[in-house]
Amino acid sequence: MAECPYCHQRVDTQAVVCPSCRKPLKAYGHPGIPLHRAQGDASLCQTCAYHADDTCTFPQRPLARDCTLYVDVNQPQPQPPVYRLSPTQAAIGWIQRHLVWVVLVALIGLSLALALANSKR
User: Fold this and answer.
1) CA angle, residues 15, 31, 12, in degrees to nearest 5
2) pTM exceeding the 0.70 threshold for the entire prediction
3) Nearest CA-CA partner of 72 in 36, 33, 110
């Protein structure tokens, strides 16, 4: 259960509006879009990662009190996972990327093997 930032009543995490004070809890009436709100008199932009790196396109910037894209610069950002391929997967990927050359070398090798086999007769 979540808490309404206005009246501090407990509300369902999927609630779009607070049942007590009727304030919106989710952006655009959609339960999947969280609506971040500033606490006190400060704007959200002062601690937003998008404002810090100047990539924010929000029209109310730099005085936004509500935002759907807010990312706190003080929170540690999760590192993307590093995917390692096994040697077999790497070899299969290399063969798939260079399939034309692999087939060409195989055909040349087969031709040479047949030519050598026929020349010994």
Assistant:
1) 25
2) no
3) 36
Instruction: Please tell me the number of Cα atoms within 13 Å of 60 on its side-chain side.
Output: 13
DSSP state of 15: -
Tens of pLDDT, residue by residue over 45-74, are 888 988 888 888 888 888 888 888 888 888
Q: How far apart are CA 30 and CA 36, in angstroms?
A: 14
Tokens of residue 2, six digits: 């979540």
Residue extents of the structural domains in the chain: 87-119
- pLDDT score at 116: 93
Q: What tokens appear for 103 in the block?
A: 């087939």
Cα distance between residue 48 and residue 51, in whole Å: 5
Sign, CA dihedral 48-52-58-63, equals positive
Residue with tokens 């952006």: 27
